[in-house]
Design brief:
This protein has two domains: 16-30 and 308-416, Aspartate Aminotransferase, domain 1 (Alpha-Beta Complex), CATH 3.90.1150.10; 51-305, Type I PLP-dependent aspartate aminotransferase-like (Major domain) (Aspartate Aminotransferase, domain 2), CATH 3.40.640. The protein has 14 helices and 17 strands. It has helices at residues 16-21, 48-61, 71-90, 105-117, 139-148, 165-170, 194-203, 223-226, 251-256, 291-307, 309-328, 355-364, 377-383, 399-416, and strands at residues 29-30, 33-34, 36-37, 99-102, 126-130, 151-155, 176-182, 208-211, 230-234, 245-249, 267-271, 274-277, 333-336, 345-350, 367-368, 370-372, 388-392. The protein is globular. The structure holds 4'-deoxy-4'-aminopyridoxal-5'-phosphate (PMP). Residues 104-106, 134, 136-137, 182, 186, 211, 213-214, 234, 375 line the site of 4'-deoxy-4'-aminopyridoxal-5'-phosphate (PMP).
């Protein structure tokens, strides 16, 4: 499922009922029906250990970080900073100082756009993105292009939803200042060959930013093996609280980047004549952060460790195969994107039925799927559709839930036909 080799774990298969019991929300009903939560690419549900870590923090350790000279301040700072170490291990960063805490992928990409790219961009320069990007990996680049006179260019994809790597490489011409690519498409589920793209970028001296929001919940991430320059991810799709995320960047880039937000926590000394800044990552972390959220993020990483990413990926692989097989048998159901290397994120349409109408009927059956443009207007334009439905699975979903979802589509089609 990735172009980076990784060890396969020796853990026994998952006891799925026990796993589901870790996620209290999965036990609830919606419109009187058992919830079938297939909107994990939007945000994942949270295990009890994460909920309890946040609760415990506010009950016992709440204080501000890095500045209090008392026991609570120490506890809060240790718990918060421990997540930086865990994240450095999670993505195999060379150092914890390369982990900049952000509110999510969007903030991480904006930080690179304004602090790394904008000061370097000149009229005539370009930034290369792909046809399958989320708006978070398009709009920040458009904004800095507008300010600098640079332009955006777009690497094409095939109809089956795969990046055309040769075209991407051809587009890496000398005026490209940065390439920005999603690791995994939030619509098509496609896994892009990031290590290959990074190698080609490196040969030409072009920094590569990878949007890892949809990859981190499914694939082991090793930023050094991938060979990219920047990696952004979001905690809330990774079983952690909302408002958490990271930017990883090579230390050299972080040293060269000016601060983006100014304020407390990011300085060494402030004088009215001028201010000197803290070293990375703190120079990018002005103000009071989402402390409890990052404590919860640490608990989410511990939870993932306890399950094992390999076991999660193996389970997801099975669920994906089952879902694709069942969906392909539904008359009139069209899957958008059939990449060979993919995660269990499946966009689809049903002939003659509006995506929102179908999503509403599914919701009445307790099935949560997303319908809309998925913050990927250019991808919708490529496929010539205004919206799709999207079923996105997590390792805690079951075969029975997929079967119930397919049966609910059948009933809804009859009602809407
Ligand atoms: N990129 C991709 C591929 C995404 O799926 C998302 C979230 N839908 C984002 C970026 C933005 O993430 P966030 O809203 O957490 O900043």
């Amino acid at each position: 499922m990735n172009d980076i080799p990784h060890a396969s774990g020796a853990l026994p298969p998952l006891d799925i009922e026990r796993v589901r019991a870790d996620f209290p929300l999965l036990a609830r009903t919606v419109h009187g029906k058992p919830l079938i939560y297939l909107d994990n690419a939007n945000t994942s549900q949270k295990p009890l250990s994460v909920i309890e870590a946040v609760d415990r923090f506010y009950r016992r350790s709440n204080a501000n970080v890095a500045r209090a000279m008392h026991a609570l301040g120490d506890e809060a700072t240790s718990a918060y900073e421990a997540t930086r170490d865990k994240l450095a291990r999670f993505i195999n960063a060379a150092s914890r100082d390369e982990i900049v805490f952000t509110s999510g992928t969007t903030q991480a990409i904006n930080l690179v756009a304004y602090s790394h790219a904008l000061p370097r961009l000149q009229p005539g320069d370009t930034i290369l993105v792909t046809q399958m990007e989320h708006h978070a990996n398009i709009v920040p680049w458009q904004l800095v292009c507008e300010r600098s006179g640079a332009t955006l260019k777009v690497a094409p994809i095939t109809h089956s939803g795969e990046l055309i790597v040769e075209r991407f490489v051809e587009l890496l011409t000398p005026e490209v200042r940065l390439a920005a690519v999603t690791h995994v498409s939030n619509v098509l589920g496609t896994v892009n060959p990031v290590a290959t793209l990074a190698r080609e970028c490196r040969r030409r001296g072009i920094p590569l930013l990878v949007d890892g929001s949809q990859a981190a919940p499914h694939l082991p991430i090793d930023v050094r093996a991938l060979g990219c320059d920047f990696y952004a991810l979001t905690g809330h799709k990774l079983f952690a609280p909302t408002g958490t995320g990271l930017l990883w960047a090579r230390r050299g880039h972080l040293d060269a980047m000016p601060p983006f937000f100014g304020g407390g926590e990011m300085i060494r000394e402030v004088r009215f004549e001028g201010t000197s800044f803290a070293d990375p990552p703190h120079k990018f972390e002005a103000g009071t952060p989402n402390i409890a959220g990052f404590v919860g993020f640490g608990a989410a990483l511990d939870y993932i460790d306890s399950i094992g990413l390999d076991r999660m990926a193996a389970r997801e692989h099975e669920l994906l195969a089952h879902a694709l097989e069942a969906m392909r048998k539904v008359p009139g159901l069209r899957i958008i994107g059939e990449a060979r290397d993919r995660v269990p994120v499946i966009a689809f349409l049903v002939d003659g039925v509006h995506a929102h109408d179908l999503a509403t009927l599914l919701d009445h059956e307790g099935v949560a799927v997303r319908s809309g443009h998925h913050c990927a207007h250019p991808l919708m334009q490529y496929y010539g559709v205004p919206a799709t439905l999207r079923a996105s699975l997590a390792f805690y979903n079951t075969h029975a839930e997929i079967d119930a979802f397919i049966a609910a589509i059948g009933r809804a089609r009859k009602l809407l036909a």
